[in-house]
Amino acid sequence: MLTFNDVSLDYGSFRALHGINLHAEEGELVVLLGANGAGKSSIFNAASALRRVSGGQIRLKDANLAGMKPADVVRAGVIHCPEGRKLFPGLSVLKNLMLGAYLHRGDKAGNRTRLDQVLELFPTLVGRKDDPAGALSGGQQQMVAIGRALMSRPRVLLLDEPSLGLAPLVVKQMFEVIQQINRAGTTVLLAEQNAHAALKICDRAYVVEGGRIVLEGTYESLAGNKAVRRAYVGG
């Protein structure tokens, strides 16, 4: 469904991605593993057209996303939930969520239905929907960020480090919700440093180092790889 074919990306004279080849089939949950600075966010920035690629193609079925404007990528159904949440702290939770529905603003009934679905996924937000987003805990803010992305009605959801800075219990809950989103039919590409938790829920995973894909496999194959286990999984 989403395919990178020999994608390179430069920041000035620095090459951040070197010939990336990866794919996520429709309905899959695919994980990108790698240390901070490995290139995971650059892969997402390329997919969402926040950065123009230097070479290669990024295809969503028959459409080439490379060269599109970010708004057109969103219209195509690829939605990026960035690292750091990027909420508007002074706006209410509800207003932050509804910003994700901007492209569907003419479909009021559909947006109400979608909002109900988001609040069902994150029931703790129901009583906080009129509170400023900046007053929420880190875990609740991450719920708002994911909920805002879901309001855009993604075909492919790019989740960049959703567990970063969260307590272990909240991480567990967050990954359960990500599984629910995937099982409901959304293709998910998840970038994570928390390999132990991420590998348990994925269909496949890629290991990213130095802007290159160095390994691909299932949980069983990667968790059984001593080098991967030592570097990312532990134990």
Any descriptors?
globular, 235 residues, 9 helices, alpha/beta, single chain, six-stranded mixed sheet
Structure, described:
With 235 residues, the chain is α/β, with parallel strands linked by helices. It has helices at 40-47, 70-76, 93-99, 108-121, 138-151, 168-183, 195-201, 219-223, 226-233, and strands at 2-11, 14-24, 29-33, 55-60, 63-64, 78-81, 156-160, 187-192, 204-209, 212-217. The mean pLDDT is 92. α3 (93-99) packs parallel to α5. The strands form two sheets. A six-stranded mixed β-sheet has the order 6-7-8-3-9-10, sandwiched between helices. A hairpin with a 2-residue loop joins β1 and β2. The chain is globular and about 45 Å long.
Radius of gyration: 17 Å
Proportion of strand residues: 25-35%
Cα separation of the termini: 34 Å
Q: Helix/strand/pairing class, anyone?
A: alpha/beta
Tertiary shape: globular
Compact summary:
This protein is of the alpha/beta class and 235 residues long. The chain has 9 helices and 10 strands.
How would you summarize the topology of this molecule?
Elements: E1 2-11, E2 14-24, E3 29-33, H1 40-47, E4 55-60, E5 63-64, H2 70-76, E6 78-81, H3 93-99, H4 108-121, H5 138-151, E7 156-160, H6 168-183, E8 187-192, H7 195-201, E9 204-209, E10 212-217, H8 219-223, H9 226-233
Parallel strand pairs: 3-8, 3-9, 6-7, 7-8
Antiparallel strand pairs: 1-2, 1-4, 4-5, 9-10
Helix pairs in contact: 3-5
